[in-house]
Amino acid sequence: MKHQMKISCQTAALSELRVFLKKTLGELRLSDVDQLQLILAVEEVCANLIIHSHKCNALDYIQLDIKQNPGKLIFEITDEGKAFNMLDYEVPDLNKVKGDKRKGGLGIILVKKIMDEIEFDSTRGTNTCRLIKWFQS
Amino acid sequence: MLTIETQEENGHTILRLTGEVDASNSVILDEAITKVVADGSSSILVDGAGLEYISSAGLGVFMSYLEDFQEKEIDLKIYSLSERVYEVFKILGLDQLMHIYPNKKTALES
Predict the structure, then answer these.
(1) Residue B28 forms contact with A (CB below 8 Å)
(2) For residue B25, how many C-alpha atoms fall within 13 Å in the half-sphere facing its CB?
(3) Residue A54 sits in which domain range?
(4) How many domains does chain A have?
(5) What's the complex ipTM?
(6) Domains, chain B
(7) Which of A75, B14, B20, B108 is least buried, going by the fewest C-beta atoms within 10 A?
(8) Mean pLDDT estimate for chain B
(9) Chain A, nearest residue to B63 by Cα
(10) Any chain A CB within 8 A of the CB of B92?
(11) CA contacts within 13 A on the Cβ side of B70
């Protein structure tokens, strides 16, 4: 299985992304709960890039590639915006988020909890974030 | 697409969410909560039966009110979430910070 999508850097594109992910993941035998969590994790990474790295510039694009290897699903998200390595991001304590009354900071916690492996590299202006989920095939 | 219907019922304000909450529309949820608080509600019930999806943008809206609501003694309860949406609250541990109930009856009785 190999699927691709080019996503315009605007938040309105997120619903289109979910439709694509739902259709693609629908080919696999995933539970409703697992399917929604994978959609959520991929969307969180894309939403972060759209808002923070590309400042919602609809002329910029993010590339999503989904590959199925034996025992794992790989979501590869590529862009050429400001590099953001979520592996360097220290996940905030939930009570601190509550105390600070802030709305952000939860997305990366979700991605780290849902995915089994996260890889990031940035080479010559191209950033690649790989989200990997293991499953029993 | 997200729609929010507001209804007054026996001293409670019910916010009925239908559709999906993401970074493109979480501001609608934020504004709806701000409005019911400005209108003087001290008991907000969120009916999540029609909520098909919520991302961190929507969860963050709820989180941002928790501290204030605790100080001002405003009740915020969520009920009738589908299993898959409830699981998202659980991944973050929000089920420990927020009052979430299986249905409206249990929300009203607690």
Answers:
(1) no
(2) 16
(3) 2-134
(4) 1
(5) 0.92
(6) 2-109 (3.30.750.24)
(7) B108
(8) 96
(9) A98
(10) yes
(11) 12
